[in-house]
Design goal:
single chain; 2 domains; two-stranded parallel sheet; 2 strands
């Protein structure tokens, strides 16, 4: 939810996969003030620097960017540092909120894709809705499918609410 522990969490995860990163990360952590450094400085010392020194390929996955408090600082740092760590690929997921969409459109080299683009027509969500609302008028099913836009959580909540309603066809 916050960038405060992001860099140390990522570096710990990378060390779990490749222990050769640990000495470089430990060297940075010898600084007594490392936790008080800016996000960009922590990212350089705990993530980008060690990966660059070892010249290792890595994939960083960040899920639910839209839930991060300091997301603009996070994505701007990742973007600024990307060229200095060419073997690092970053996959970011999140809801397409206005600030995220605006940032993605203004930065070169970032590919934005929706669930529909990645998976095509989301048959799983549609099947789920049709199964849950099988006793309802097909117009209701189609409206729920359209509004769900491939999101299971939205589909589940909508189906639950509709099934609890006294008469959704009336």
């Amino acid at each position: 939810m916050s960038t405060r522990e992001f860099c140390s969490t990522v570096s710990d995860a990378f060390v779990g996969i490749n222990p050769h990163l640990k000495p470089h990360i430990d060297e940075f952590k010898k600084r007594l003030d490392w936790r008080k450094l800016s996000f960009e400085q922590q990212y350089e010392g705990l993530v980008a620097g060690p990966l660059r020194v070892l010249n290792r390929r890595a994939i960083l996955t960040i899920d639910a960017l839209d839930e991060c408090e300091d997301r603009i600082e996070l994505i701007e740092t990742l973007c600024d540092k990307q060229s200095s760590v060419p073997l690092l690929r970053t996959l970011i997921t999140g809801r397409p909120e206005a600030d995220i969409k605006q940032w993605v459109m203004k930065v070169d080299g970032i590919r934005r894709a929706s669930f529909r683009e990645l998976e095509g027509h989301n048959q799983d969500v549609e099947n789920y809705i049709q199964f849950r609302l099988k006793d309802e008028v097909s117009d209701i099913q189609h409206r729920v499918i359209r509004h769900a836009d491939g999101l299971f959580i939205w589909a589940r909540i909508a189906c639950d609410l509709l099934r609890q309603a006294p008469d959704i066809n009336g």
